[in-house]
Amino acid sequence: MKLKTVKEGESTFFIPDAKMPEYGEVFYHPEQALARDISILVYKAKGVDVLDSMAAGGARAIRLAKNGVDVIANDFSEKAVDLIKKNMELNEVEFEVLNRDVRKLYHERRFGAVDLDPFGSPAPFLHCALHSAVHMIGLAATDTSAFAGSYPRVSRRRYGMNMHRLTNYPEIGVRGLIGFVIREAAKLEIAASPVFTHIFRHYYRVYFELKKGAGRTDVILDEIGLFKEQGPIYLGNLWNKNLVKEMIKISDKIEFGHKLTQKHLELIEGEADFSKPFFEIPKITKELRIPCPPQKEILNATKGVRTHFSPQGFRTNLSEDKVKLIIKKLSSC
Ligand SMILES: C[S@@+](CC[C@H](N)C(=O)[O-])C[C@H]1O[C@@H](n2cnc3c(N)ncnc32)[C@H](O)[C@@H]1O
Question: How far is 95 from 97, CA to CA, in rounded Å?
Fold first, then answer.
């Protein structure tokens, strides 16, 4: 495999010398540096050891190790494992590297946290990953059309959800993913509480704290319901505020690999207090057939904050009816 090097944060990686490395012999996506930055903050703040169970060339595992997180990397591709070893040498870090199919590995060993970063959907791996994770699971989904309601049959088949297209679908989608994880964990009497959620383009990422117990599981299941006839989705908080604060606190010690990570984190810090789904301004003004008032005025009038989910979105504790009324009023000024 012909290789080239890229720098990401504090690390340098060999990656396949392909025009689009996400389609190379071993996967590497430069845009996902943002998600890797965030995962360093989450796992470091939580102080857990991590199995990077689908590590590809080891970008996440190496960055975690460079930032003082105990990590084990795994991938079932031999080429990926060779590349991880080369990248370990290049970055002068050492950790255990496995060449296993995760579906077997998850049943054999347990890890403080399991990171599950598949191509597309985490659904086929989730149940066994939950057997392997002791304190946390962090997972990604890139099959966002299943959550966006573009393919309702896929949503139903893969996630047991009914979804249709909604104005704020990225958030409803990610809440659908969270609801799915909670329901899957509940089968094992594990309460899976989301502690950090973010999306970046087509990439959804959620981190859960896991606690055993039927009572706790029932409590978190109570936070699942329907939203405008869609779901079941998770209706509670997407972030644990203390974790977000801790992540912000340690963030100046991390060299980020993506230029938007800091901004992303700041937006999330602002919205972490709000549990209701965000509103998309142009969708509301289009529905009401009115001109769009400036976002700043809407934020002031609704005591709202911006959201990382959409540059034209905002979050408030007010009801949808109240929000519409305010926007209508501002629009007529
Ligand atoms: C999207 S890539 C992971 C990207 C990586 N985490 C990163 O940040 O660059 C998915 C990886 O999972 C591996 N994979 C897929 N199915 C697997 C399985 N059943 N067991 C182990 N590895 C698997 C693939 O070889 C691929 O390298």
Answer: 6
Q: Give nearest CA residue, ligand 1 atom 19.
A: 101
Indicate yes or no: pTM above 0.70: yes
Confirm or reject CATH 3.40.50.150 for domain 3-266, answering yes or no: yes
**What would the pLDDT profile of 156-204 be if each residue is shown by its tens digit?**
999 999 998 776 788 999 999 999 999 999 999 999 999 999 999 889 9
Identify each DSSP E strand in the chain by its residue range.
3-8, 11-16, 50-52, 71-74, 97-98, 111-116, 133-141, 190-200, 203-212, 224-227, 230-234, 279-280, 305-307, 310-315
How far is ligand 1, taken at its centre, from the CA of residue 260, in Å? Answer: 24
C-beta of 102 in contact with ligand 1 (< 6 A)? yes
- Give, in words, the CATH class of 278-332: alpha beta
Mutate to test the pocket of ligand 1, among 75, 102, 127 (most ligand atoms within 8 A of CB): 75
Q: Which residues of 95-107 are buried (b: 16+ CB within 10 A; e: fewer)?
A: bebbeeebeebbe
Residue bearing the CA closest to ligand 1, atom 18: 101
| Cα 122 to averaged position of ligand 1 atoms, centre (Å) | 11
**Which residues lie below 8 Å from residue 306, measured CB to CB, with a gap of 6+?**
267, 270, 271, 295, 299, 313, 314, 315
Domain with CATH 3.40.50.150 in the chain: 3-266
Say yes or no: CB of residue 80 within 6 Å of ligand 1: yes
* C-alpha closest to that of 225 among 179, 168, 275, 160: 179
Average pLDDT over the chain, rounded to whole? 95
